[in-house]
Amino acid sequence: MTGVDAERIERAVRELLLAIGEDPGRPGLERTPQRVAEAYAEYFSGIGADPSVHLADAVPTGSTDAGMPATSDAVVLRDLSFRSVCEHHLVPFTGTAHVAYLPGEKLVGLGRIPAVLDTISSRPQLQERIAEEVADALDAGLKPRGVLVVLDAVHACVTTRGARQEHSSTVTVASRGALADPAARAEVMALIGSGRSA
Fold first, then answer.
1. Which of 30, 101, 176, 179 could connect to 144 by a Cys-Cys bridge, CB 3.0–4.6 Å?
2. How far is residue 125's CA from residue 18's CA, in Å, rounded to a whole number?
3. Calculated CA dihedral for residues 104, 152, 94, 15, nearest 10 degrees
4. Helices 6-19 and 32-43: angle between axes, nearest 10 degrees
5. What DSSP line would sit under 44-109, residue for residue?
6. Spacing of C-alpha 52 from chain mean position
7. pLDDT per residue over 114-165, tens digit each?
8. Helix axes 112-121, 127-142, angle to 10 degrees
9. Bridge partners (DSSP) listed for residue 5
10. First to last CA, the chain
11. How far apart are CA 14 and CA 82, in angstroms?
């Protein structure tokens, strides 16, 4: 998919406003269909996009290209912000991601990992699936010895409707390779939990 059909979204939003008993022509709502179409173009920009393209310029671990030294230690990115849209109710959820990998064959620039996360989360999604798909993309693209993805998110479908648990968040974990081992995973989780004081 190369983008959303803005005109179709605008027609659908007008119909939705009518269906809930609103007047789509009243002041304050007359530009809402256009605003929603613009927002959806951003929210769903990952549909049809391949997250692996962000890993295409990975370098061999023994290379000193781009100033990246050879290493066998964990690479841990903490506190990556992400947002997505729940596929069950089409309302947003937002949170923090922590991503770690044990370099095997390749290293990638640190900015590429948030790009993978953004591509995968910019679709109608489930939090559990995002964690799994990020782990799969890194596993396939970098051939690491292990991958760990931890997501902590607040869901509008939980906080604003139904149970209305305003202070709740959901944590999901996906692991691959050596970081599927409980001891190794615990060590990296401790690094994540140590915050910036580590």
1. 101
2. 27
3. 100
4. 120
5. TTTTT--GGGGGTT-EETT--GGG-----SPEEEEEEEEEEEETTT--EEEEEEEEEEE-SSEE--
6. 14
7. 999 999 999 999 999 999 999 999 999 999 999 999 999 999 988 888 888 8
8. 140
9. none
10. 42
11. 29
pLDDT in tens, 77-104: 999 999 999 999 999 999 999 999 999 9
The residue type found at 139 is D
Please state, in angstroms and as integers, the Cα–Cα distance from residue 150 to each residue in 82, 88, 98, 178, following that order.
Answer: 12, 22, 5, 16
| Rounded Cα–Cα distance for residues 87 and 74 (Å) | 33
DSSP letter at 161 equals S
95 CB-contact burial (10 Å; exposed 0-12 / middle 13-18 / buried 19+): buried
Could you give the CA distance from residue 153 to residue 77 in angstroms, rounded to a whole number?
Answer: 17
Nearest Cα to 180, choosing from 153, 151, 144? 144
Which residues are 84's β-sheet partners?
A: 93
Q: Which amino acid is at 146?
A: G
Q: What is the DSSP letter of 26?
A: S
Residue 183 CB partners (closer than 8 Å, separation 6+): none
pTM above 0.90, yes or no: no
